[in-house]
């Protein structure tokens, strides 16, 4: 991937778009297929606020926002949130749920690469959560996010580690045994090691501030933040100085 080409090549897997579009009417069902996203959302917001402080008044971009679960939570904290996704149906679900709420929310069907050409350096915070493992060229997403954030801003990414435990717990257990996610939600070969994600970040002039892992306890059905990055993990970055 080169910076001269990543903005002109469509970085989308139509199968992934169709897969989530088929579930669009169930994004906000807390007992449905997206229950794990609802369950981990407070932890995602906590990781973000611990990294950058109060979200009130911040201009935030949520890349791959899906039905708006994270976008709405950040808007409820006083942020001005732009959520982008390439799924028309999922953006429709996000808009429908936000309708009538007094929130500073704007949803757009646009790629992050296109938006990076339109509005470079315009966002205080950029989030890209549970999205990198669903695109053909995840480094292109990281590069575009780096262009969109302000020089003194913050970026937050999350994905799954290409580690045997992630295959065992993220696919076999979560999709086939516990049925936490629909079968086929994830492709192990698209999982990303923390070292790989950190390398892409540094290549695009970002400094890694820290990592946190997400763990799940099946007996209590609760998630927690910790230092185990072998399954789900989140990364906080800031633009390099100088």
What does this structure look like?
This protein is α/β, with parallel strands linked by helices. It has a single domain, classed as Rossmann fold. Helix content is 36%, strand content 25%. It contains 8 helices and 8 strands. It has helices at 14-21, 35-52, 69-76, 88-98, 112-118, 138-148, 164-177, 194-203; strands at residues 59-63, 80-85, 105-109, 123-129, 149-160, 206-217, 222-226, 232-239. The protein has an 8-stranded mixed β-sheet. A hairpin with a 4-residue loop joins strand 6 and strand 7. Helix 2 crosses helix 3, helix 5 packs parallel to helix 6 and helix 6 crosses helix 8 (194-203). The longest helix is centred in the first third of the chain and has 18 residues, at 35-52. The radius of gyration is 17 Å and the shape is globular. The model is unreliable at 1-8 (pLDDT under 50).
């Amino acid at each position: 991937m080169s910076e001269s080409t990543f903005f002109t090549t469509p970085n989308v897997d139509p199968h992934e778009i169709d897969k989530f579009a088929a579930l669009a009417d169930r994004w906000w069902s807390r007992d449905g297929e997206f229950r794990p996203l609802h369950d981990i959302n407070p932890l995602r917001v906590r990781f973000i606020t611990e990294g950058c402080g109060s979200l009130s008044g911040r201009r935030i971009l949520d890349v791959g926002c899906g039905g708006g679960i994270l976008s709405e939570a950040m808007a409820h904290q006083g942020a001005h949130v732009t959520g982008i996704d390439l799924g028309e149906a999922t953006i429709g679900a996000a808009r429908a749920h936000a309708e009538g709420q007094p929130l500073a929310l704007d949803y757009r069907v646009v790629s992050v690469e296109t938006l990076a050409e339109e509005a470079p350096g315009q966002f205080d915070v950029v989030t890209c959560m549970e999205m990198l493992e669903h695109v053909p060229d995840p480094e292109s997403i990281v590069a575009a996010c780096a262009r969109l954030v302000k020089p003194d801003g913050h970026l937050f990414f999350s994905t799954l580690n290409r580690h045997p435990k992630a295959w065992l717990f993220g696919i076999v257990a979560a999709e086939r045994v516990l049925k936490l996610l629909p079968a086929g939600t994830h492709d192990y070969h698209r999982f990303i090691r923390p070292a790989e994600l950190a390398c892409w970040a540094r290549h695009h002039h970002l400094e890694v501030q820290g990592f946190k892992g997400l763990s799940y306890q099946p007996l209590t059905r609760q998630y927690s933040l910790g230092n185990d990055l072998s399954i789900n993990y989140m990364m906080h970055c800031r633009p390099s100085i100088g």
